[in-house]
């Protein structure tokens, strides 16, 4: 198995170590004067952290042999690149091509000419690791975001690549699923001597390997210490939101999410919905909005003294809100339907500018062509400036770097002085730092202050 040797070239000078059969990478930062760094990447799991916008996708693009974009601030040259390379993109929908789980899992095996019995045996091993894959006829579109990520990783590993690169494609997974996936990576390394490079915007992911690096706008260095930010719990007004679930049964396809479930909570300012991947968080959110009906039982989701509260909802796949249109088109529809005033539009544009997002440069680009983090943040800030009483955000921190999460946390704290929030996320640190009430699918219990505060303090310590 080849190893990767990397040397960083700045201001026209470098030290590149050429080793036979090594995959050698030279990275040139043309506009920054930094000290030289070099290291080798050998078979194993390697994690590269970088804030959103520093160029992780551009780094991957160049490693796969594509030319750097005009906005790239570095150039990569490679030698002795492995013949067997697999890339997984950030958007899990971009990899799924078959109408059933079985066909999706079998695709690479069939392409590589394996016999039907060997294919069956290999797929059964994968199913033994992930229960949600057992329904052969299930359409992949019905999977949660995290389940799609797992499916894509498993199908990529079925090709036994020498080099697997993943572009922020574990960001829907909670910690338990990530731990399980890391075990899967370690097995792949042991058996196939693969090099697995995981690019991530979540600094907490660095804990999953000792081989860890940081890409910034001016450097590419090894990380020795991991210092993650802590969210501050601030006071906010007592909420007027109430949630009453009476003998509720809720299904997602053939899977029962909730059965004969009853709970009640009120005086909520921010409701957090947490749980494992595929447990039904998004299904419940869609039921709260009224996009789907319960199979039985009732849901009462209301604001005190407000008969028909206006609810805004941002899906975990934000491009669905725009279809193939642009942010400008969507904004005009909101104004046309009196969801946003022109005055609030100007405030929204200023909020974007305060968070380094240029409305003029992004507003007319198709949703399919915008970076997910830019699209997600822009839509969150846009809906926050609309006439909604309750805003439901599904996986709002997906793909965001540490500073972006801190910025979003602060903005949402201020937002809650006037409005109410529902946050659906696997990112427990984030939602525990904002929510005064947590509905956990793992325990099927509702937590309120002071238990929530106690749990948050334990997590932070």
Q: What does this protein look like?
A:
This protein has 461 residues and is an alpha/beta fold. It has 2 domains: 4-222, Rossmann fold; 241-460, P-loop containing nucleotide triphosphate hydrolases (Rossmann fold), CATH 3.40.50.300. It is 31% helix and 25% strand. The strands form 4 sheets. Strands 6-7-8-4-9-10 form a 6-stranded mixed β-sheet, sandwiched between helices. Strands 15-16-17-13-18-19 form a 6-stranded mixed β-sheet, with helices on both faces. Strands 3-1-2-5 form a 4-stranded mixed β-sheet, with helices on one face. A hairpin with a 2-residue loop joins strand 11 and strand 12 (255-268). Helix 2 packs across helix 3, helix 2 packs parallel to helix 4 and helix 8 crosses helix 10. The protein is globular and about 70 Å long.
